[in-house]
Design goal:
The chain is α/β, with parallel strands linked by helices. The protein contains 6 helices and 13 strands. The protein binds ribulose-5-phosphate.
């Protein structure tokens, strides 16, 4: 039976089929890292990439792929990234690696979000994985109290984001309406963004299973 890493590699390879030319948006995390390694093999076909984190930018550059500032590009055809959880409706919960804000910004600039996951990430309801919320440091306690009012138990992560902010991981949420919950949390003053990617869901899900890579389209 394939290991989880082998499944991630399979799905990363499948995502390369979606790479045409121009500039590619690239996500963050172990699955995205496999994608970067596969992208390096076809780097002659692309102009370069926009990275969703400093870690991703470093890995892209290590492979000799040019990294563009998002402000210097008009947009992208595709953004490729993993997720911590995804539903069949293509709503995602992301930010396990702490890069959620930049991921959401880069994804917003792409025509198509291609989510690459192994089968363990497909869930009926989001929220078992603690929901990451990026918060300005001075608002930490206030935002935590507001998140408790929404029924969650926020836990401060020992981590500073690429943007110099903190992350509260919110446990205990059963997210029945991800679009509404995403908007509600983002309205709390001091929140930069939260890890629900529902208002802008994935367009394509490539899911690595024991029976091969399955494709879901929105
Ligand atoms: C990082 C993310 C990642 O996409 C998510 O955590 C999945 O990571 P992995 O591919 O390592 O399981 O949102 O902020």
């Amino acid at each position: 039976m394939a290991t989880q890493d082998e499944l991630k590699q399979q799905v990363a390879r499948a995502a390369v089929e979606y790479v045409k030319d121009g500039i590619i948006g690239v996500g963050t995390g172990s699955t995205a890292n496999f994608f970067i390694d596969e992208l390096a093999k076809v780097k002659h076909r692309i102009d370069g990439a926009v990275a969703s984190s400093e870690a991703t930018a470093r890995r892209l550059r290590d492979h000799g792929i040019e990294v563009f500032d998002l402000n210097s590009v008009d947009g992208m055809e595709i953004y490729v990234d993993g997720a911590d959880e995804i539903t069949e409706n293509m709503h995602m919960l992301k930010g396990g690696g702490g890069a959620l804000t930049r991921e959401k910004i880069v994804a917003a600039c792409a025509k198509s979000f291609i989510c690459i996951c192994d089968a363990t990430k497909l869930v009926p309801v989001l929220g078992k994985f603690p929901l990451p919320v990026e918060v300005l440091p001075m608002a930490r306690s206030y935002v935590a109290r507001e998140l408790v009012k929404l029924g969650g138990q926020p836990v401060l992560r020992d981590f500073t984001t690429d943007n110099g902010n903190i992350i509260l991981d919110v446990h205990g949420l059963t997210i029945m309406n991800p679009v509404e919950m995403e908007a509600r949390i983002n309205q709390i003053v001091g929140v930069v963004t939260n890890g629900l990617f529902a208002a802008r869901p994935a367009n394509v899900l490539l899911l690595a299973t024991a029976d091969g890579v399955k494709t879901y389209k929105k």
